Amino acid sequence: MGKSSFANHPFLLGFEQLDRQVERSAKNDGYPPYNIEQTGENAFRITLAVAGFGDEDLSITLAGGELLVKGARDDDSSDKTFLHRGIATRQFQRAFVLADGVDVLHAYMENGLLHIELQREAPQAHAQKIEINNR
């Protein structure tokens, strides 16, 4: 029996790409930890704990409705002797699927946290009448 997903529902047409994005973003391993908070009626903030990473070690891209945050830094520990190493600074990639109409306003670092501010356009309700034509 095959894997079931929401895009296989007979009333949802054309959602295959979104289904793939959701599946891909669900495979994140939990690092780095993050919060998503609602900061206004149509405003959100994603906050990632990126201790040890600087601005130059991080990249944020938005393509095809997917917000991708990557972190990579050079390993400067070769000349150090750690008695305990509990601060993770490994490379990471975290993906978030954004709905249509959600825009990234800006990103900033504060106290080891990367904040990404998002804004959703206010939805506009409109109906469209479809004419029935002869072939």
What does this protein structure show overall?
This protein has 135 residues and is mostly beta strands. The chain has a domain at 31-75 and 88-122: Immunoglobulin-like (Sandwich). It has one helix spanning 16-26; strands at residues 34-40, 43-49, 58-63, 66-71, 92-97, 102-110, 113-120.
Name some characteristics of this structure:
Immunoglobulin-like, four-stranded antiparallel sheet, three-stranded antiparallel sheet, 7 strands
- What name does CATH use for the topology of the domain at 31-75 and 88-122? Immunoglobulin-like
Total strands: 7
CATH class of the domain at 31-75 and 88-122: Mainly Beta
The number of helical segments is 1
Structural class: mainly beta
**Rg on CA atoms, Å:** 20 Å
Low-confidence stretches: none
Give the helices and strands as they follow along the chain. Answer: HEEEEEEE
**Strand percentage, roughly?**
35-45%
